[in-house]
Design a protein that fits this description.
Blueprint (H helix, E strand, L loop, with lengths): L7 H7 E2 L2 E2 L3 E5 L5 E6 L4 E3 L2 E3 L1 H9 L4 E11 L3 E10 L7 H9 L10 E4 L13 H5 L2
Parallel strand pairs: 8-9
Antiparallel strand pairs: 1-2, 3-4, 5-6, 7-8
């Protein structure tokens, strides 16, 4: 890659020291396999604790009523950021925000639990189908 077209600042940030800094966060298992966990830009910092949105999204996907979910960080005066989820339910599903929060609370650490769940008709997506989290953060 030679750079981002017409975006010299982003190119300088991504191409440093002879390396491409993709912004991906990953782990390596005992056999040397690499697993992409999330993106650095998407990570949420709740009172110094790191929350990977993908972990919370995967939990929400496991709920029978949830068709799609996206998790973002929202500003919080005390904790820096809080977790917020945007959820699209299956057409026949009957679930509310409080039920989804309680579901998460029963499965993950308290600091990872969304403080708000907004039920939406659809998630904003790019032409390639990628969820546009920057749009969700601005809501």
């Amino acid at each position: 890659m030679q750079g981002y077209f017409g975006r010299p600042e982003e190119t300088a940030e991504a191409l440093r020291g002879g390396w491409l800094h993709s912004g991906d966060i990953g782990t390596v298992d005992e056999d040397g396999y690499v697993f992409i966990v999330d993106r650095v830009k998407d990570m949420i910092n709740v009172a110094g604790f790191k929350v990977y949105p993908r972990e919370v999204e995967e939990l929400l996907f496991a709920h029978a009523a949830v068709r799609e979910a996206a998790v973002v960080g929202t500003p919080d005066a005390l904790y820096g950021e809080q977790v917020k989820a945007f959820v699209v339910t299956h057409p026949d599903a009957r679930v509310d925000s409080d039920e989804l929060i309680a579901y998460c609370r029963s499965k993950i650490a308290e600091y990872k639990v969304p403080r708000a769940v907004e039920l939406v008709a659809a998630l904003p997506k790019s032409p390639t189908g990628k969820v546009l989290k920057r749009e969700l953060r601005s809501r």
